[in-house]
UniProtKB/TrEMBL annotation:
Annotated PROSITE patterns: C_TYPE_LECTIN_2
Highest taxon listed in the record's lineage: Eukaryota
Organism lineage string: Eukaryota, Metazoa, Ecdysozoa, Nematoda, Chromadorea
Signal peptide location: 1-20
Keyword annotations from UniProtKB, A to Z: Signal
Location of the C-type lectin domain: 47-160
Protein name (database record): C-type lectin domain-containing protein
InterPro entries: C-type_lectin-like, C-type_lectin-like/link_sf, CTDL_fold
Amino acid sequence: MFLLKIFLSFSIFLFIKIEGTPTPAVCKEKAICEWSWIPKKLCGTWYCYGVYSPVKPAWRNFWGVTNVCKSWWKGSHGISIHCQEENDWARKGFGPFYTGLYIPENLPWNVSNFQWTDGSPVDFVDWAKPGQGTNVQQPNNGAPPGQVERVVINSNHWHDVVADPGVVAIPCKKLPVRVERTFLSHNNNPCSGNSCTTCNGNNSNGRYSIYNCAVHS
């Protein structure tokens, strides 16, 4: 009987403690993309991804890398890659493919002249090493005389090429229409003191309030 009283007392104490403990805010994010585009948060940032495939044979080159995405889908560019996570995800989903990395036609070949079609910084690379589908370190501008390897394919690792008829995909990348954050909080407004600055109202949900906060539009 004594043990039963101790058990019941502890159970009541535990129940009161749990019920009385404030629940931390929970944040859920969702990117809104145009129809058929894939929302994905990679390298800490939301983007929308699409792919043009099969690319016409005449476009599997510099022109295709620099024109297909922006011509077909307004606001998009050939995919830029900024971390290993994005590189692996894109290779698994689209590869082999043409990246958005290129050397403008008004510049000579030099590894320092590679840039992304969307203008973002070149802060990550995955050039193939000997034994990774190549006999020499990439990039190497191994084109015949009179030609320049100005574009890059991602085929397990990156290779600079003039063109590759066997690569038929050009993934495209663009900013989402908007990113929505939904905060679930307990007895406090989660929109104060955090990165969510614009609250679009809230609705009661039992003990919680739902705040839909627009990150950007």
